[in-house]
Design a protein that fits this description.
Blueprint (H helix, E strand, L loop, with lengths): L1 E6 L3 H14 L3 E6 L2 H10 L7 E5 L7 H10 L8 E5 L17 E4 L9 H10 L1
Length: about 130
């Protein structure tokens, strides 16, 4: 079973993502983290853990998603793990000088709830 780290402070969005996965038949263990600083700490400690994908919100309390992404990319053991950044804003992250701070995909959260479940398709494409 795949393991997904979901870093999202919005309970509503976490709920919607879990519901979309269930609806799509996507079987995965989801580890939820709601604060940016807790996510950074988790990824420093999880350098040897075998997760498959990170769903990372941009706007997080205490540390933003860009800072968390930078922490992931700096940890050698997990630097190449796929990261899908999510935001309601179209402002995409800037890459580091060497391009290492880019997410694998930037997903603009739709305002229409019927389109929200596209996230399951996106995740499935990374897990296959």
């Amino acid at each position: 079973m795949s393991q997904i780290i979901l870093v999202e402070d919005s309970y509503h969005d976490r709920f919607m993502i879990r519901e979309c996965f269930e609806e799509a038949g996507l079987k995965a263990e989801i580890i939820e983290i709601s604060l940016g600083d807790e996510a950074e700490k988790y990824f420093r400690q999880a350098a040897n853990q075998n997760f498959d994908l990170v769903l990372l919100d941009v706007n997080l309390p205490r540390r933003n998603g860009y800072q968390v992404l930078r922490a992931i990319r700096k940890e050698k053991a997990i630097a190449t793990k796929p990261v899908v950044m999510m935001s309601i804003s179209e402002m995409k992250p800037e890459a580091g000088e060497d391009g290492t701070y880019q997410p694998d995909l930037f997903w603009l959260k739709p305002s229409n709830p019927n389109e929200f479940c596209r996230i399951a398709e996106i995740v499935q494409s990374f897990l296959n």
